[in-house]
Each structure stands twice: as structure tokens, then as C-alpha cells.
Amino acid sequence: MSAPKRTVSDAEMQEEWLEVQAAQRDPAMFRPLYERYYEPIYLYVFRRTTNEDLTADLCSQVFLKALQKIHRYEYKGVPFSAWLYRIASNEIAQYFRKANKNRVVTIEDAPLSHLAEEIGQDIPEDLTPLLVQALDSLREEDLQIIELRFFEERPYKEVGEILGITENYAKVKTFRILNRIKKNLG
After folding, report:
1. pTM above 0.90, yes or no
2. Which of 4, 99, 153, 169 qualifies as a cystine partner to 165, CB 3.0-4.6 A?
């Protein structure tokens, strides 16, 4: 699977909004959106479950809910994918609450260089276990911000939209979380 495109121009968002409006009028027109976003949503869910069958089930729920609620979607200046990520995030959280299991965070393929850069220090291999421990100590909502910002490489505006907070608050929370991680790394 290829890496999802990280930034979307205003023109692309406007074009996508037209596709969404078409899908709101006719559910059959949802297909191009599904085909564009299935892979990135699948990868997002898989990184949190590490189980292919569970990921497929959760992705089915995400796109079913998106299709059922497409008429409620409103354009807010961020890509349509932010809405899908929000649904996916809720489905993942709901699964782990119901199953009473701990969430998984995989960092093997994650771009740790961005996280290290923001923390202001290199993270050599021998510090990786400490980083895992620091991430593991975060509250669920804090970990979600770090995942979206650094593992998914989403802009702050999208992180805010996905989590239902403002862009500025996403920046402030990220700064505070990074300071806690830095403190934990010693």
C-alpha cells in the first residue's frame, strides 16, 4: 500500500466537496471517495489494531457509517478524509472499550525523526524503548494527537477537525504533550 497524500490544495478540496455533494444526492456517487480513502483509513486502523481481520471489520464500519451519514457532512475547509479519520478514531475507541483491551501503537514504520525533531533531540535506537514507554504513559486522547500529528503526519487543522478541537488547541496540546515526553526521556 502506498503512503497517503499528506496535503491537499484548496482547489482539490473544492473539487472533492463537489464529489461529496454528488454522494449526498446519490449514494452510488460515494464510490470515488471510498476508493480514494479506503487504503489510508485501512492503514490508520491497522496501525492501532495490528490485526488484519479486525481492521477490515472496522473499516467496513467506518465506510458504512460515512455512507449512512454523508447527508450530515458539512465542508469546513479541511479534506473529507478528516471526517473519515474521525469516524475511524471513534470506531477504534469503541472497539477497545467494548473488548476491554488495550490499544496498540506501532512505531516501527513511524517517522520518528519528526517526533524527535519536535522534541529537540535525536532518538537513538537505545532510546526507542524509553520513547515507547513515554508514549505508553500518555492518556488516550494525548496519544491520539501524537499519532495523528507525527505518525499520520496530519496538519494541525486536520488534527483539530478529527478530534473536534480547534487548530490552535491542537497546537497547544501537542506542545504540552511533547514537553511531557521530553521530560520522560530525561
Report:
1. no
2. 169
